[in-house]
TrEMBL record:
Swiss-Prot/TrEMBL cofactor(s): heme c
PANTHER family noted in UniProt: CYTOCHROME C1 (PTHR10266), CYTOCHROME C1, HEME PROTEIN, MITOCHONDRIAL (PTHR10266:SF3)
Cleavable signal peptide: 1-23
Name the record gives this protein: Ubiquinol-cytochrome C reductase
Comment on bound cofactor: Binds 1 heme c group covalently per subunit.
Organism name: Bathymodiolus thermophilus thioautotrophic gill symbiont
Lineage of origin: Bacteria, Pseudomonadati, Pseudomonadota, Gammaproteobacteria, sulfur-oxidizing symbionts
Cellular compartments annotated: Membrane
Length: 289
């Protein structure tokens, strides 16, 4: 019993010392100020991630077509609705309008007459399916740089064996990095690379010392102003926040609607309660003999 108490005390002392050391070495994290409802930010973040990060890092819990559906489909639908409105109002159709109508009918469109003829042959569900297919084509063009299909998980281009040789460790999957580390950590980490001639890639990181990762965003840092670079990093962080929980886009929107419904229900319930208790107070409800 005495030995058990001694061991327990030693463990507690060790944990206390560890927590104190962690507290003393805690690094200040800048506020990412991300907004998962900002679709333009998510779209830019997706493109930047695919261009600068996906070569080494997977987000294998996410598929390309899910990214297309969540982040790009609404733009395709809005473009079609605007083009259709211009078509019905007999306004001149721009090149963008003709492309949007072509997406809806899954066929090249040259003029308004052809567009009307083709749209008249399709049901609403067929047009919806064609717009989804057009979005997949956009994803294939802008986000997929290897032989993967649009329905495939987003897997890093680099092999695990090659990564082990070149970096000394396999780059982690970033599907849940925003949930495990937090958006502030990601945002600060990506902006904290600095020159260090003692490291293999000539850079180190203030947030994660002696990290094996090179400064992959160095070109953005050099070619853009500081506010523009910070916004790009914020967009990447925002995209990784979305990847960690794609349902958050629906959950937050639904949450506001539920809270609004409950607020209205509370008002109606309160007024109903007052109406019932008015009768009780003035004796209109009496027990029958």
């Amino acid at each position: 019993m005495k030995k058990l108490l001694t061991t327990t005390a030693s463990v507690l002392v060790g944990l206390t010392i560890s927590f104190n050391l962690l507290a003393n070495s805690e690094i200040h994290l800048d506020h990412a100020d991300t907004d998962i409802s900002d679709q333009k930010s998510l779209q830019n973040g997706a493109k930047l991630f695919m261009n600068y990060c996906s070569g080494c890092h997977s987000i294998s819990f996410m598929r390309y077509n899910r990214i297309g559906k969540d982040l790009f489909l609404s733009d395709t639908v809005k473009a079609y609705e605007q083009a259709k409105a211009n078509l019905l109002d007999k306004k001149p159709l721009s090149v963008a309008d003709l492309q949007a109508l072509a997406n809806a009918v899954d066929n090249p469109v040259k003029d308004a007459k052809q567009a009307k003829a083709l749209l008249g042959k399709l049901s609403a569900s067929q047009i919806e399916e064609n717009l989804s297919k057009a979005t997949d084509k956009i994803v294939e063009k802008d986000l997929i740089f290897n032989t993967e299909k649009v329905g495939s998980p987003v897997v890093a281009a680099i092999s695990k064996k090659g990564a082990k040789i070149w970096f000394g460790a396999t780059p982690p999957d970033l599907s849940l990095i925003a949930r495990s580390r937090g958006t502030d950590w990601i945002y600060t980490y990506l902006r904290s690379f600095h020159e260090d001639d003692t490291r293999p890639f000539g850079v180190n990181n203030k947030v994660l010392a002696n990290v094996s990762m090179p400064d992959v965003l160095w070109y953005l840092k050099q070619s853009k102003s500081t506010p523009e670079f910070n916004q790009d990093v914020r967009d990447i962080t925002n995209f990784l926040d979305y990847v960690g929980e794609p349902a958050k886009l629906i959950r937050i929107d639904l949450g506001y609607k539920v809270l609004g419904f409950l607020f209205i229900l509370f008002i109606l319930s309160y007024l109903l309660k007052k109406e019932y208790w008015r009768d009780v107070k003035y004796g209109k409800w009496k027990a029958k003999d």
